[in-house]
Amino acid sequence: MKSEHVSKKKTMLEWAKAIVIAVVLALLIRHFIFAPYVVDGESMEPTLHDHERVFVNMTVKYIGEFKRGDIIVLNGDDVHYVKRLIGLPGDTVQMKNDQLYINGKKVAEPYLAANKKRAKQKGKYLTDDFGPLKVPDDEYFVMGDNRRNSMDSRNGLGLFTKKQIAGTSKFVFFPFNEIRRTN
After folding, report:
1. Is the pLDDT of residue 12 over 80?
2. Is the Cβ–Cβ distance between 85 and 70 less than 8 Å?
3. How far out from the chain centre does Cα 63 lie?
4. Which one, of 131, 87, 80, lies nearest residue 109 by Cα?
5. Average pLDDT score over residue span 33-50
6. Where in the sequence numbering do the catalytic residues fall?
7. In the predicted model, is pLDDT for residue 26 greater than 80?
8. Whole-model pTM?
9. Contact assessment for residue 79 and residue 53, using Cβ atoms and an 8 Å cutoff
10. Per-residue confidence (pLDDT) for residue 172, from 0 to 100
11. How far is residue 66's CA from residue 91's CA, in Å, rounded to a whole number?
């Protein structure tokens, strides 16, 4: 009888330990490695769609570097923004005749091809002229891919610090029939 009681107690402790380890691992993964986020709005159309869910790689904040063109998730006041990283700290950003210039050099934006075509059919540029704008040290300039319908660093959101960047997104996981890598 005593050995049966000890065996049950040992089994319960093993289960409790396994559950605690699983919870701790889940919390560590969720807060430091990757996390799911919901795309809210149309500012990243057609790359990302409203209500899609993306995985965000959070490790880049600790062991990597952000690259121009990355899709990033930004932490705002009680809201998250999904945008494309355009200007890095120290860059000079300018848009002229629907062409992006970084530090005076033309930058290709192939992810905008469909949106530029639609804007041109309407007799408009996708992105209005602005700049040159110098991005201060320790700040980042972002824009949505749907430039005619995006609140971003040009018009209201302003610049962001590294601390405000949750991470990069390269993968849509929901809805399941739309699972894909992003670019």
Report:
1. yes
2. yes
3. 17
4. 87
5. 90
6. 43, 83
7. no
8. 0.83
9. no
10. 92
11. 13
Q: What is the rounded distance in angstroms from the CA atom of residue 55 to the CA atom of residue 61?
A: 15
- Other CB atoms within a 10 A radius of the CB of residue 42 amount to 15
Q: Can you tell me the distance from the alpha carbon of 16 to that of 36, in angstroms, rounded to the nearest whole number? A: 27
Close Cβ partners of 100 (under 8 Å, ≥ 6 residues apart):
86, 93, 94, 106, 107, 109, 127
Distance CA 119, CA 121 (A): 5
Amino acid at 89: P
Contact residues for 52 (Cβ-Cβ < 8 A; gap 6+) = 38, 39, 172, 174, 175, 178
Amino acid residing at 118: R
Its CATH class, for the domain covering 35-175, is mainly beta
**pLDDT number for residue 68:** 94
Structure tokens at 151: 């609140």
Distance CA 78, CA 158 (A): 16
Q: How many residues does the chain have?
A: 183
- pLDDT of 108 reads 94
Query: How far apart are the C-alpha atoms of 129 and 94, rounded to whole Å?
Result: 7
Higher pLDDT, 18 or 105: 105
Residue type, 97: N
Helix (H) or strand (E) holding 121: helix 113-121
- pLDDT, position 1: 58
